[in-house]
Amino acid sequence: MSVDQTATLLLVGMFLGLVFLRVPMVFAIGAATLATALYLGIPLMMMTQNIMKGINVYTLLAVPFFILAGEIMGAGGISRRLIDLSSALVGWIRGGLAMVNIVASIFFGGISGSSSADTASIGPIMIPMMEKHGYDRDFSTCVTMASSVQGILIPPSQNMVIFSLAAGGVSIGKLFMGGLVPGLLLALALMILSYGYSIKRNYPVSEAFSLATAWRTFKEAIWGLITVLIVVVGVISGIFTTTESAAMAVIWAVFVTFLVYREIPLSELTDILGRTVHTISTIIILVGMSTGLGWILTYLRIPQKVSLAVFSLTGNHFLILIMLNILLLILGCLVDMASLILITTPILLPIVTNLGMDPVHFGVLMVFNLGIGLLTPPVGTTLFIGCSISKLPMEHLSRSMVPFYITMAVCLMFITFVPQFVMTLPNLLFK
Q1: Where are the alpha helices (DSSP H) in 258-375?
Q2: pLDDT tens digits for 59-73?
Q3: Is the pLDDT of residue 362 over 80?
Q4: What Cα–Cα distance (Å) separates residue 182 from each residue in 100, 101, 242?
Q5: Are 234 and 245 in contact (CB under 8 A)?
Q6: CA distance 260 to 265
Q7: Would you list the domain boundaries of the chain?
Q8: Average of pLDDT values for 321-347?
Q9: Does residue 289 sit in helix, strand or coil?
Q10: 312-328 b/e with 16+ CB inside 10 Å = b?
């Protein structure tokens, strides 16, 4: 066995072994990378330089700014206002509160960029409200969790920024625009599913549509919705870079939360900053360790070997994309989303580019695919939050989620094999 083969087995085996032993992902990546580097005789100073190079990226500053803006807006009363606006817009449809839940996730996802933040903010309000009006608790929780995946697709999304870093600098603006239509497609599919449930289970219709109510709730929510405009319009127009737009979103979030809505005292900012720093610290360390892992993977030429192995099995593009989707779905059930983006992108991106797939298309596909993993056992973060809010066991919720899993898988296939869903907006806006 050659040195490279032994090093590959050491890297993969040690990493999988540590993950199986439930060692935190960042330590599993770091330990496997360090052990392999020592075996290969690579100077530790070189590894340290590569790790620091991965962290010392200007674009990475956008991630903590987006997280902080989402935390501030989420704590400042924006959730309730978005729910009120959603209720005024779609509450009159059969199963209206389910529709309200989905539309509220569209709005809130565009502010937080996080599935778990969406569920944690909207769930405590919507799940009891839906149950009070006759909806089953498991259905209410499933709608809340499934619709939260829109948050990682609709811009801004910190996971798109992480993919851009892992892919070597794919345009974040294109990724943001590429995720918009798939996010809305998911919302439409979930609405159709919810409407079918509502007919079958005879869920109630809310009050009739009122233009006056819609206008009043829109005026109350517009301050929060402007956050999305600052980011999206700023990036598309070229007024701001992605990082600058994220920083402006934080400034606007502080202004709206503490000077316009004024539902929480300024002293709450300390706790908000504490939660943000905790999240950011995890992401920054993970990015650094994953950069080291990516360098070792490239050194061992693992991406090229995996690509050759895949194409040796079949040359059929359709089958290869199905295989990659299944692989990501399985991995998404087992490993944290950000970790998977950083680990698998250097390996899988060469495969899809050889198939002629645009990196932007693959980025949106990967984020959506791994977003489904957030709702699946055994490590689905959003699933855990849904269980905590609803007080339902994971096994029960997982069974109830099956129709939602199927619906999301159908949307995933549309996005995979109809690239126009992803690429039309980026191609129109970025020439």
Answers
A1: 268-299, 302-313, 317-332, 337-354, 359-373
A2: 677 778 877 877 787
A3: yes
A4: 19, 18, 21
A5: yes
A6: 12
A7: 43-429
A8: 82
A9: helix
A10: eeeeeeeebbeebbeeb
